[in-house]
Amino acid sequence: MAAPSSSIRTLHLTKNKGLKRIFSGIQPTGIPHLGNYLGAITNWVKLQEECSSVLYSIVDLHSLTTPREPTVLRTNILDITAALLACGINPQQCFLFQQSQVPEHAELSWILGCFTSIPRLQHFPQWKIKNANQMNEGTVGLFTYPVLQAADILLYKSTHVPVGEDQVLHLELTQDTARRFNKKYGEFFPVPKAILTPAKKVKSLRDPSSKMSKSDPQRLATVAITDSPDEIKLKFRKAVTDFTSEVTYEPDHRPGVSNLVAIHSAIAGLSKEEVVHQSIGLDTAHYKAVVAEAVIEKLAPIRSEFKRLKEDRSYLEKVLQTGAEKAKELAAPVYLEVKRLVGLH
């Protein structure tokens, strides 16, 4: 095996704090929204500071489970790259790369798929929901994408994976797959552990009973991190609340106002109690404006940096190319050893 590049040596020699290697991925499905930013991306920025070996992948192979035009997908890949960089992801502190540029992801997925039963995949709630949405004509890719997720993680012998509650089942499949492989071929893959961070669940501004989503048909429901100040003000002004003017945090009884408080809390770095206390005397109409201004202030530098990066396509492509080269240096020897263990090499 060739000696690791200086970039990899540097990454491994920095501080560790007990986290050996982190892997996480994000699909290129458009500009991240406020929920993506507060729920995942801010955590990614923090983790790159705390761990010596961090890989963040733009999982474009996963995005093929939902049909989209090639030109749209290519644009989305560069958009999410620019967005992550604008939010603080630093290619000098992590490996940021495009999944499909490291073919070992798909190749390992096939091998791991041969260790995975059909009934196990049929039990995933995401399959049941998406298959129903596609009129029971879900594709093989949609059915087996949890196996590809397992390959994404195990390919780098990752020890920790930041996940939301809705992804715990997928990580359990990865853990079980690692155990099955190790039982048959000897201890090889670490069994990765979940990093469950305090959930910052951002709800739709138009329907606080559901999560904020890029695919929401209501234009005013979702705040993109690149929205203009006027767009943000309008969306918060139109946010669903209730007929009580006082600002309180009661998710079960006042979901709309509580969603605003949760957003304000996460943006300002304050507890919900502190936010509510600061809002004494404000009615909900004025409070919407306060939250909007806090969001505008937080997102302004991100929006500006995103715009600058979008104009430098060659730089974005270079970041992804360099990241893929670094990731492949880690992935290739692992996959080569897997091939040897199973008898393919």
From TrEMBL:
<dbReference type="InterPro" id="IPR014729">
    <property type="entry name" value="Rossmann-like_a/b/a_fold"/>
</dbReference>
<dbReference type="GO" id="GO:0005524">
    <property type="term" value="F:ATP binding"/>
</dbReference>
<dbReference type="InterPro" id="IPR024109">
    <property type="entry name" value="Trp-tRNA-ligase_bac-type"/>
</dbReference>
<keyword id="KW-0547">Nucleotide-binding</keyword>
<comment type="similarity">
    <text>Belongs to the class-I aminoacyl-tRNA synthetase family.</text>
</comment>
<dbReference type="InterPro" id="IPR050203">
    <property type="entry name" value="Trp-tRNA_synthetase"/>
</dbReference>
<dbReference type="GO" id="GO:0005759">
    <property type="term" value="C:mitochondrial matrix"/>
</dbReference>
<keyword id="KW-0436">Ligase</keyword>
<dbReference type="InterPro" id="IPR002305">
    <property type="entry name" value="aa-tRNA-synth_Ic"/>
</dbReference>
<keyword id="KW-0648">Protein biosynthesis</keyword>
<dbReference type="InterPro" id="IPR002306">
    <property type="entry name" value="Trp-tRNA-ligase"/>
</dbReference>
<keyword id="KW-0030">Aminoacyl-tRNA synthetase</keyword>
<comment type="function">
    <text>Catalyzes the attachment of tryptophan to tRNA(Trp) in a two-step reaction: tryptophan is first activated by ATP to form Trp-AMP and then transferred to the acceptor end of tRNA(Trp).</text>
</comment>
<keyword id="KW-0067">ATP-binding</keyword>
<dbReference type="InterPro" id="IPR001412">
    <property type="entry name" value="aa-tRNA-synth_I_CS"/>
</dbReference>
<protein>
    <recommendedName>
        <fullName>Tryptophan--tRNA ligase, mitochondrial</fullName>
        <ecNumber>6.1.1.2</ecNumber>
    </recommendedName>
</protein>
<dbReference type="GO" id="GO:0070183">
    <property type="term" value="P:mitochondrial tryptophanyl-tRNA aminoacylation"/>
</dbReference>
<dbReference type="Pfam" id="PF00579">
    <property type="entry name" value="tRNA-synt_1b"/>
</dbReference>
<dbReference type="GO" id="GO:0004830">
    <property type="term" value="F:tryptophan-tRNA ligase activity"/>
</dbReference>
